[in-house]
């Protein structure tokens, strides 16, 4: 998921893991790659230096198979996006792709551990920063000052470089900002009482501002840095540990310690880290994606199979599809907050390793305030529907957060209100509940391309899309290609599609795009 419609700024979240108090470095500005119009994508890095690439971001190498003296605490991409650096808490630096090694503190006794790094825009060097604000400069990186000799109220957790490379900011866990060189002070949270500590910062567009990110997903924007949303008001299962911004600064991503990615503004969602992880995620960087492909789907492209519901329940007179199948999508609930599939356990067994889950949404309202809904009664009810469906699946033995979910949005008029904006709030509430609160890695939308906008208006969440598209000559690949035709005709859809439902002569048949 996963844009927010209405969000508060601060929430209560789980305690920040000591291992992953990580700096968020300045986003990569892929200058050379920009000529080829790359898709803004992202990398994640774990504390063992394992790298996860999304959206077609190139993989250049990792320390995942190396015995490290100290854990990796962050990463930074090169300016052209052709490589990246990893930095460990002892200041050991590992360079991959076109990232050039200029030196490290790996053999130096440090007063305090290194917490992050920033590269010189355009290349040529980098800075390392320790938790006492001590700065170590390498290559063409110039030393402009540090807090190494200053008594700090809270430890430094990250840094970001100015676009000119002639200055940098340091940020402490209380949001205190220290500016050096041509870095302009735009404000801080140093005088505020925060619900949770700051874990890092990212530079805003053109360096005229910056964002501070807290472990509860709260974001604070200063200067000209625009606010696109946060995880404010949502109970998170795991703390936010890192963030990255798109090259133009018109969107950003968050990741938590298990690699669950949330996106805002124009930052597209391409997947989350696979579960379970061997080590926690500690860093994130923007990458020039080659394909913009979603990573993490249960099904390989070209897979065939079926989706089933209570209507295929053998004990109720139905029958399950026979033969081999890779796709097995099972209904959990037949309406919001009710009509639980009586054959859920049986159908889960039929699906096998290719299990996905879906729940059928029907509009309602609730005056019980739910996280991030800001009192909107439609959002409240949608959030409750998401939690209700997850609990039903969990009770049936299907509670893995790695299992993809789909929200079934269909039948304009019959199941929805006449207020398209409130219908969209309902869907967003369910997305928030499943992705953020329950920690489901991938939550997408099932809908017909010709009906979706009749239900939710121009609401266009950037999530995986399961498209119900029935061509005259039913064809899975043909339906995948038909998505572009709907968009050309003006449909504002989720997607692009990961799955298409293309035939229902006896069973609903599905194809992975």
Short structural description:
This protein is of the alpha+beta class. The protein has 6 helices and 28 strands. It has an 8-stranded mixed β-barrel, surrounded by 4 helices.
Beta content comes to 25-35%
User: Span from first to last CA?
Assistant: 19 Å
According to DSSP, the number of beta strands is 28
What is the approximate shape?
Answer: elongated
What is the arithmetic mean of pLDDT? Answer: 89
Number of helices: 6
Structural class determined from secondary elements: alpha+beta
Task: Give me the Rg, rounded.
Answer: 23 Å
- Uncertain runs: 1-35
Largest sheet: 8 strands, mixed, barrel
This entry's quaternary arrangement is single chain
- Strands of the biggest beta sheet: in what spatial order? 19-20-23-24-25-26-27-28
Helix content bin: 10-25%
In terms of topology, how is this protein built?
Elements: H1 31-34, E1 39-46, E2 51-54, E3 72-77, E4 83-88, E5 93-97, E6 114-119, E7 125-130, E8 135-139, E9 156-161, E10 167-172, E11 177-181, E12 198-203, E13 209-214, E14 219-223, E15 240-245, E16 251-256, E17 261-265, E18 281-289, E19 304-308, E20 327-331, E21 333-335, E22 338-340, H2 344-351, E23 355-360, H3 377-395, E24 405-408, H4 420-437, E25 443-447, H5 452-456, E26 465-468, H6 476-488, E27 497-503, E28 508-512
Parallel strand pairs: 19-20, 20-23, 23-24, 24-25, 25-26, 26-27
Antiparallel strand pairs: 1-2, 1-18, 3-4, 4-5, 6-7, 7-8, 9-10, 10-11, 12-13, 13-14, 15-16, 16-17, 19-28, 21-22, 27-28
Helix pairs in contact: 3-4
């Amino acid at each position: 998921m996963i844009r927010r419609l209405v969000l508060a700024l601060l929430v209560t979240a789980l305690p920040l893991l000591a291992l992953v108090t990580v700096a968020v470095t300045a986003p990569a500005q892929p200058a050379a790659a920009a000529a080829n119009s790359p898709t803004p994508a992202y990398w994640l890095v774990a504390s063992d230096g394992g790298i996860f690439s999304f959206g077609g971001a190139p993989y250049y190498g990792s320390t995942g198979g190396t015995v490290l003296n100290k854990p990796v605490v962050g990463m930074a991409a090169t300016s052209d996006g052709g490589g990246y650096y990893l930095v460990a808490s002892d200041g050991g630096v590992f360079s991959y792709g076109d990232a050039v090694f200029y030196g490290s503190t790996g053999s130096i006794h440090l007063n305090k551990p290194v917490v992050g790094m920033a590269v010189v825009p355009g290349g040529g060097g980098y800075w390392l920063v320790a938790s006492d604000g001590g700065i170590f400069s390498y290559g063409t990186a110039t030393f402009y000052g540090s807090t190494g000799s200053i008594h700090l109220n809270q430890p430094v957790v990250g840094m970001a470089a100015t676009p000119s490379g002639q200055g940098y900011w340091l940020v402490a866990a209380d949001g205190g900002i220290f500016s050096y060189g041509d870095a302009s002070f735009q404000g801080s949270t140093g005088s505020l009482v925060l619900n949770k500590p700051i874990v890092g910062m990212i530079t805003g567009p053109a360096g005229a501002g910056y964002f501070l990110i807290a472990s509860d997903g709260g974001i604070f924007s200063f200067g000209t840095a625009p606010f696109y949303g946060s995880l404010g008001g949502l109970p998170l299962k795991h703390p936010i540990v890192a963030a990255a911004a798109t090259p133009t600064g018109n969107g950003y991503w968050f990741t938590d310690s298990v690699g669950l990615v949330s996106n805002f503004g124009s930052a597209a969602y391409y997947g989350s880290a696979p579960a379970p992880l061997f080590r926690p995620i500690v860093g994130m960087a923007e990458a020039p994606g080659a394909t913009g492909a979603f990573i993490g789907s249960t099904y390989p492209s070209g897979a065939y199979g079926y989706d089933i519901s209570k209507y295929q329940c053998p004990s109720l007179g139905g029958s399950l599809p026979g033969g081999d199948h890779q796709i097995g999508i099972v209904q959990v609930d037949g309406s919001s907050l009710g009509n639980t599939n009586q054959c859920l356990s049986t159908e889960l067994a039929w699906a096998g390793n290719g299990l996905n889950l879906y729940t059928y949404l029907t509009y309602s309202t609730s005056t019980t305030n739910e996280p991030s809904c800001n009192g909107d009664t439609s959002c409240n009810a949608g959030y409750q529907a998401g939690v209700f469906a997850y609990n039903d699946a969990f009770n049936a033995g299907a509670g893995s957060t790695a299992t993809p979910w789909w929200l079934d949005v269909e039948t304009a008029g019959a199941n929805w209100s006449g207020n398209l904006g409130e219908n969209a709030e309902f869907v967003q509430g369910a997305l928030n509940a499943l992705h953020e609160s329950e920690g489901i890695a991938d939550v997408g939308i099932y809908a017909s391309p010709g009906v979706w906008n009749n239900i939710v208006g121009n609401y266009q969440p950037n999530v995986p899309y399961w498209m119900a598209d029935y061509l005259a000559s039913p064809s899975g690949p043909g339906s995948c290609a038909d998505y572009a035709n709907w968009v050309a005709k003006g449909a504002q859809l989720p997607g692009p599609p990961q799955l298409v439902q293309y035939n229902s002569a006896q069973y609903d048949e599905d194809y992975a795009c």
